[in-house]
Amino acid sequence: MNGAAEPNGRDPEREVARAAERLAASRREIERGLTVEHPGPILQVVGPVAREHPWALAAASAAAGALLVGLRPWRWLPPPAVLTSLLSQVALNALQQRSRAPRDGRQGEHGTDRRRD
């Protein structure tokens, strides 16, 4: 339509450009979150294995999880210690969520800070 708006006032080319920019920004944010500047020794070993054999790593993770559930090490601790550790994790998560909340009071859908142009 060469930049002309539709009868309902919408400009499809502009909406596509905005959607493409939001997608690119989202991808940059994901890549930034996945980038590790100083990988530790475990990541240096696991990273190449994950790239070469992702299914083997997933199977090993599932096996480790099954072993953990089978052994049930949380039952070895006295109940007050388990309760204390769970409550501290809940409190820590609540504080982290609160620190990530937008400061200007504007929130988009589902509590995220999405601003529409």
Give a description of the structure.
The structure is a single chain. The chain has 117 residues and is mainly alpha-helical. It has one domain. The chain is built from four helices and no strands. The chain has helices at 12-34, 41-52, 54-71, 79-100. Helix 2 crosses helix 3. 0% of the residues are buried. The model has no long low-confidence stretch (mean pLDDT 80).
Protein topology:
Layout lengths: L11 H23 L6 H12 L1 H18 L7 H22 L17
Number of helices in the DSSP assignment? 4
Beta-strand percentage?
under 5%
* Helix proportion: 55-70%
How far is the N terminus from the C terminus?
A: 21 Å
What composes the largest sheet?
none
Which regions have little confidence, pLDDT < 50, spanning 5+ residues?
none
Alpha-beta content class: mainly alpha
Mass-distribution shape: extended
Number of self-contained structural domains = 1
Average pLDDT over all residues: 80
Task: Output the radius of gyration.
Answer: 23 Å
Give the total of beta strands. 0
**SSE sequence, one letter per element:** HHHH
